[in-house]
Every structure is written in structure tokens, then in C-alpha cells.
Amino acid sequence: MRSGLPLLTALSVLGGVLTGPAFGQSLRITPEVAAESRIFVDDPRFDGQFGTFQGGLVLSGDLRWTSADRNTRILFEPYLRLDSQDGERSYGDIREASLSLRRGDWDILLGVSQVFWGVAESRNVVDVINQFDAIEDFDEGEKLGQPMVRVSRSFRFGTIQAFYLPFFRERRFPGEDGRLRFDPVVVNDAAVYERGGDEWAGDIALRYTNRFGGFDLGLHAFHGTSRNPFLAPGAQSQTLQPLYQELTQGGIDLQYTGGPWLLKLEAAAIDVGGDTFAATVSGFEYTFFGIGGGDIDIGIISEYLYDGRDMARAPITIFENDIFAGTRITFNDTQDAEILAGAFVDTETGALIASVEFQRRIGSRLLLEVEGRAFTGSGNPFTSAFQNDSHITLRLTRYF
Known about the structure:
It comes from Eilatimonas milleporae. This is Porin. The protein is mainly beta. Helices cover 5% and strands 54% of the residues. The chain is built from two helices and 22 strands. It has helices at residues 5-18, 381-386, and strands spanning 27-40, 53-66, 72-83, 91-103, 106-113, 146-155, 158-165, 185-186, 192-193, 203-212, 215-225, 230-233, 239-244, 246-258, 261-272, 275-288, 297-307, 321-330, 338-346, 352-362, 366-376, 391-399. It has an 18-stranded antiparallel barrel. The model is unreliable at 1-24 (pLDDT under 50).
């Protein structure tokens, strides 16, 4: 707790001093703190894991500065998590620390940033720039900050972005006493690399985006190090060692918007670890607006996920041949209440991963979030390891 207070205090003091009249509206500092409780339904499956309760505290926020002509921007977002049970889950990160420059049709970004590619709800096979934060969750929903140089140029026929990523961020896994982990445990500090230069080998990427009527199109090419490591037997007895393989990938993401319909496609041709395969996500979202003449909107989501990799030579994935079905309920009220529920079903084994997420603002400075996760079936590598890890998470965030 003491190690996180300086971050929150500094952001609060800076927010009070630097957002005064002398600085106008160009600088905004917003600290936030979140208290979290995670309750597991079952006793742990593996030796050494903690019991049923896990508490946490998250200190974060952002500093945003924009020049008067809006052509220069600075963004800084620190992140610190403190965990009551798993030492590997107490960590800090810089999510964003970037300088953005706009000069005519050119945009240049220098520093640490987060980039999102894709259109699907369940998984984004084209999203390869940032490392996923497996300490926060296993489902590739959170990201670590990625050092980069990004140059963008707008043309009449679309926008082209070029990326150079000089430093690789390793994925962190829960420790031996943590839940939602594999057995044997993954030794985070034992990572090895297929490419020379290891984490300094450098990655490159290109992306093209444009809009045609109701279609949003993205094309990309990437060469570098795979963000998802192959977990090999470690040098230490009964451990797993992350192996980061060379990755070359090209792909497309396409979304059509027509009234209540969203039609979505992501597809990638991937070469990693000596295996060449295709991965796709395709599906739709249909929204019923103003249910019963009121303000509630209900979206129905269905997607099919395919991954053709050779599982004996590639990293573990939960998204091999799965169907995702879900719903999004938006209440459109002053509290911004929303429910997102869905489930992955493995078409080969019947294994199931289900989730329900609810969030609602309380007043102007509090956000309440409730999440539930359930794992059933033993034929999938994730549900096999996590079958005792169904849980409920309560999170209350205070914004300053």
C-alpha cells in the first residue's frame, strides 16, 4: 500500500496545481484507485495455490497535455497493482508514455503506447502489436505498454501506418501460489528467444485502413517476435519455460455496418515456430434498439473461431475451433449501466468458458464492476488447468 501512495499523491497534487487558470484546458490529470476482491468458488487444484479469497488494489490514472494548435500531444498512464496472495501479480507498468506530433497529413508517435487492431468481440487474431497482460486476465483483454515509433500518413485512398518496435515485452504469468495458472508453473524469468538479439531484436509492421460506404477495412503485415510464448519443459524440475518464437503474419479485418447489423471478419496467415497456418474469427452482432419502447438496447453476438496451428509445436490457445455466443445489454441511463455476457464452446471437446460482466457508475466519481467466470470440461488446455478456478470479481474504482 505504501509503495502506491506516492503515485496517487503525486498525480493528485499535480492535478490541483497544473490544471489551474494558467494552464487553461490543455492539461488534464486524472488519478484513480480501485479496490478489488476476487472470490473463487472451489478449493485450489494444484499444490501451493492460495484458497478462495484474493484482494487487490490498483493505482493508475493519466496525464494528457495538448498544445494550443492541437498538433502536439503528451500522454502518460502509469499502472500499479498490489495483490494480497500472488507475488507475481504485484507489479507496475507504464501503459502509455508518448509524444504525438501532427504535421499536415503526417502523424508521428514516439514512446510507449497501446494499439488495437480488429473488429471481433471474442478474439482479435490481427491484434499483434502489444503484449497481453496475462497477470490481469487470461483472455487477452488487457495489454502492456509497447515501446514504439509509429509514422502515419493520410491519403485520399486511406491511411498507412508504419511501426518500429525496438523492445519486446515478455508475458508475465501467475506465480506458484496464484490461481488461473498452468501446472507445472511458468518461470517468468527463464524466457528464451528464437531470434538473435532476444528482446532487442526489433519488430516491424505496416497497416492500411479505409472506409468504403458501410465497410471498414484494415490490412496489415508484421514480422518480429510472437507475443504468445510456446511453453516448453524448463531447466528446473517441474517447471515451464517461455520460448518466444519468430513470427511473420499478414491479415485483414473487415466490418460492415448496416442499421442494426454488424458483420465482422478477421483473418490472418501466420508463420511461427516452423508452422504455417490460418486463424479466423467471423460472425455478427444484431442490436434490438429501444426494447418495449424504452431506452434499453440488446445486442445478440455470435462468432466462430478457427485456428489451424499444429498444437504440438505452437503456443497453447483456447481459441482453436470454438463458437462464441453472447449478448450486450445497454441501459442507456445516467449511470451508464451495461451487461456483457457470453460463452466459448469448444466444438471438439464440449469444454466451456463462460463470463458475465456488469458495470454501473455510482454518482460522478465511482464505478462498480462485477465479473463472473466459469470453466467446465477437461478436453481444453485452459479449462483443464482452470477447472477449479471459477470465480466472481468485485471492483470499485474511485476517480479524482
